[in-house]
C-alpha cells in the first residue's frame, strides 16, 4: 500500500501573489520618493486604443482591496477607480489604432505609459512599470516589474485605472460605431466581433496590422486574378 506524505509547504504554482507596498517602501528608504506605478490595458484587442495609467499612491490613504485588474469584477474595478482618483495622483494616456499600426503594439504601449507618467502633476523619483520593459524617455529612474500588477500596489492601481478608462472609451465608441458591439467585448476578437467585421468591414478604430485584419503581400499574390468580363 502506497504511503501518502503531507507537507506544510505549498507548491509554488499554488501561491497566489497579492500586491503590497514592499517595492515602494524600499524605494522610499533609498531616497527615491515619490514612486509611480504604471500599467496599460488593451494590448490584445483588434480595435480601440491601448490605454496607460500612472498612479502615485498616498501611503496614508491607499484604497483597500487593490489587486491586478484582471482579478477583479467590473463592478469592483469601478468602485476602486473612484477611490483611486479621490486619494492618489493619477494620469491617463492612450495610443490609438493609427499609432499602433504605424509602429507596433509594444512601442505604442510603452509610449502611452511614458506620456501617462509625464502627465502626473507630481514628478516621481522612480517609476515601477509592469512587464519586462521600462518606457523609454522617462525623466527619472524606471524599473520593470514582471507581474507587477500582482506585486506592487501602485502598479495594481494603475492597472485598474487603465482598464476602467479603456472600457469606458469602448462603451462610448459603441455609440459612434454601432454594429460592432464594442460595449460588449471592448474590441477583443470575440466571435461576435469577428462576425461584425465580416458584415460591416473594419472601421477606423480597427488595428489593421492585427490578424485577421492584416493581409500579407504573399496572401494578396495568392488571390486569383480577376477575370475580364465576357462580351
From TrEMBL:
Alphabetical list of Pfam families matching this protein: RNase_HII
Keyword Metal-binding set for record: yes
Residues annotated to bind a divalent metal cation: 39-40, 130
Cofactor: Mn(2+); Mg(2+)
UniProt keywords, alphabetically: Cytoplasm, Endonuclease, Hydrolase, Manganese, Metal-binding, Nuclease
EC number in record: 3.1.26.4
Leading EC class: hydrolase
HAMAP family from the UniProt entry: RNase_HII_B (MF_00052_B)
Protein name from the UniProt record: Ribonuclease HII
